[in-house]
Amino acid sequence: MTATTDTVRDVVRSFLTANGVTKIFGNPGSTEMRFFKDWPEDLDYVMVPQEAPALAMADGYAQASGTVGVVMLHSAAGLGNALGSLFTAERNGTPLVIIAGQQTRSLLMHDPYLFARRPTEFPRPYVKFAVEAPRPQDVPTAIAEAFRYAEQAPAGPVFVSVCEDDWDAPGDPPPPRRLSKRLVPVGADLDRLTEMLTAAARPVLVLGSKVATEGARGRVVELAERLQAPVLVAPVASRSPFPEDHPLFKGFLPPVASEIRTQLDDHDLVVVMGAPVFPYHVPSSGPPIGANTTLVQIVDDPRQAALAQVGDAIVGSVGPVIDALLDKLAQIRDARVAPPAAHPRAKAPTAAGMSPEAVMATLSQQLPPDTIIVEEAPTHRNAMHDHLPISRNRDFYVAASGGLGWGMPAAVGIAMAQPRRPVVCLIGDGSSLYSIQALWTGAQHNVNVVFVVLNNGGYAAMKAFGELLRVKDAPGLDLPDLNFEQLAAGFGLHATRVTTHSELVDALNTVPTDGPRLLNVLVKPAADALY
User: Pick from 188, 317, 333, 380: CA 20 to 30 A from residue 439's CA?
Assistant: First the structure.
């Protein structure tokens, strides 16, 4: 038998390109240097000047491209920097392979400098799978297994620790394998759900992010129209599962049990698709549905199915379930009442001074119809819901975790994955400071992103929570003297200060079709900062 001449580095890079990887995001360190030897032309290394935005950028890229994202981090310190973004990637359900460096094998017994102690435990519980190969030749197999874990439903991030000298060791490619990525429930469960939908007098669909993740937005519109069922978006959904200008769209459920119950009380059947039942943000008493309401959840995550407080659960991927229901359901439109009116949207003022509502309305009017919206401005989410609808041709992304620091780098990654579509990142002044290094990577790669900083001079969402919790004058919630024009210029972006409606219109109309820009939009406090 002829000994292999390929190194682990060669084998892994060939595996990555064979599996559709064209970009690796990261921030290089000494324990990763050997991987970069003789760098190939068919792999693009995207340098991000901090690990947290590197992981978030890979997250956004993976979601928007429909591929497995790959990010390379530096040993324990780099992974530690990225843990907040890892938490978000896990909540987003993003298929992401994280490769982190480890010290040289011969030094591992002696607690060396830059040693990752118990590396597979460090990222838990926010990874599906974590491994450090016991031998150098096992590294390609470990990475192949990581890809399978990342893609298999429910998708999510995985972790591989690689000793820095393993890359030079001889390696063999793992055998090719095909693995089913989605779950299809048993026919009896689908038959029962079909009967329940046919018999229900007042059904409602509650849709979550997985509808968008699985590319099922168009088919769920057909399902809602066939049922003539109104549609609500599940609490804190990170994607837009249904066009918000559709007549059947009824609005958003808040993450508060009592308010959810109020919105669902008029319905005899609630079908939750691709979302937990239900994530809450503040406590309230009682269950989320009344005694006369039946709830059925369809979700591909057995854990979410088990943790649901009420109702029955069908474990399965949303896309195949929607397809099966469309095949099984007869046209029952005539038995339904007329569809409800479209979700009402108040008219936003455009008078002197910039209200968040006016900003959102102006963006809705001025932005191209295929714009991708990335949002990390929780104070202004209600204004966005009311005045910037995500229509059929638009896409929407937000961090499912509620943590800050994801929006800016994710927008850059999304723009890399969708270079022909305009991307607008709506971000608060406080949120922007968590990962503002992403502006540099955006400028270096000339991505088509407009960063709209909604600058109200502080952490307004926390001020609103302070009022809710009767905490007065909490320290550290003001952010005076930030100059976003200078910050953007320092990272290589052109920036514009916006104080009036006409300035915003002019700034949007003069934004070039390619390359990043930043708009520092001075806004008044939000009229309704909480739910």
Answer: 380
